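[09:14] KT: can someone run the structure on this one? pasting the chain below
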Amino acid sequence: MELKTYWAIICRRWWLVVGLTLITGVASILLQPSQVLQYRATVRLGAQLPASFEESPQVPRSQGALEATRLFDYLLDDLVEVIKGGGFLTAVQARLTETGQAGAGGSFDARKMRRLLTITTTSGDPTHAALLASAAGDLLSDPGNLFLRALAPPGTTLIVVERPTGAIPVEARSYLNIAIRVILGLLAGLTLAFLLEYFDDTMRSPGEVERALGLPVVGELPRDRSAVKVS
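[09:31] RB: done, structure tokens below
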């Protein structure tokens, strides 16, 4: 089937393609749930091993760097999982309550890159998001915090290398979701148009007659488009 044949089918069924696309778009807009604007703040920390680590007789000097790298990886991997859990959020909120800065809601996410730990907080209040990030950095950089003592050798510390300067709004994905649904509606309309054409046995052109019957068309009666006025 040639491209012009496809185009002719689309032109004949344009109402179906356009209609289904418009219905999908309007329904997506009307049924899109209202989203509460969220804000994110970020704090970054670096890990520092105890000074006695490389001098330990159990760790030869030639293997000190390798062992340190492994220790950093294990420590940060464990911290990422701990930060994503509910216990860390509870500890941070308790710390904020002690300073009279408690707020409702919020969540944590974390990822590591080499020796850096990046913590991202999300909250419906930009001030609270920044406070959560700052409190998380203060909690982990405290040498006596339970999380670090449970996961790292004695003397290991975390240092805040980048404090949150504020919170930024999270980009809403609602427009992207609507666009995806409109595209799906367009594809569904095209599919239905070709499906209806497949089951429609109407022959609309000499070429279709020749392909269907295998006989040449020797003549064609033109349509009389002139209006007949009856007096």
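[09:33] KT: thanks! The chain is about 50% helix and 15% strand.
[09:34] RB: yep, looked fine to me
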